[in-house]
Amino acid sequence: MVERSIELTLEKIDRMTDEARIIKAARQDPKAFGELYRLYVEQVFRYLFSKIGNLHEAEDVTAQTFLAAFESFDKFRQDGHFASWLFGIARNKAMDHFRRRDNLSSMDESSEIPVEDNTLSKVIQTEQEQALSKLIQALTEKERELLRLRFLAEMSFPEIARFLHRNEEAVKKRTYRLLARLHSQLEVSNE
Length: 191
Prior knowledge:
The protein contains eight helices and no strands. By secondary structure, it is mostly helical. The longest helix is centred in the first third of the chain and has 27 residues, at 2-28.
């Protein structure tokens, strides 16, 4: 477990170093912005899909997000917080989307978890997913947003804190408490 933690920390450092290098290159040559796109497109898409709930619309809003980021890249202050800035644009684009369309989304459609080709496993998995989906839908929008940022957008706690304009420790505590609450509610519903 410690090795995995060290491995994740090293990956994060490499990503931050790569990101800084790419941002510097994109400032000099707009074509280099494509590397930032490749670095973040999957995370932004998962985040938007979890909010929007429709594959094609999420793809469109993802494209709009990166177009807006590219067009306003000169306004980005190079302070090491690119992910927070980019996800702020993504959230605004999602809100624009909802203003145009009254559409509800659900987090349970955002990821498909492969399971063994075993009927009993599939039934158990489906029941657990349905129970978790109901619990997630009962959360406040702020709580669902926190889960989206952490698990679908794969943002770090410092990135989420900057994005939400909150203290990093407060974000960690809120996330862990939320997960503990969901875990205990899920255990109660499985009894």
